[in-house]
TrEMBL record:
Organism: Adineta steineri
InterPro entries: AMP-bd_C (IPR025110), AMP-bd_C_sf (IPR045851)
Domain AMP-binding enzyme C-terminal: 7-52
Membrane-spanning intervals of the chain: none
Stated name of the protein: AMP-binding enzyme C-terminal domain-containing protein
Length: 52
């Protein structure tokens, strides 16, 4: 990937899913231009002081 290029990034909270499963699911439900280029899988999504 080049710096300054545009990418769609998906942040996902999960313990039991991998990038391949996410990509396959997206490919079967979304048009190609809506499929994220990058999946970032987190154990827990960060929250602010208000819990949002």
């Amino acid at each position: 990937m080049k710096w300054n290029d545009d990418y769609l990034v998906a942040y996902v909270q999960s313990f039991d899913i991998n990038e391949e499963e996410l990509r396959e699911h997206c490919q079967s439900h979304l048009p190609p231009h809506m499929i994220p280029s990058i999946f970032i899988i987190l154990d827990k999504l960060p929250l602010n002081a208000n819990g949002k």
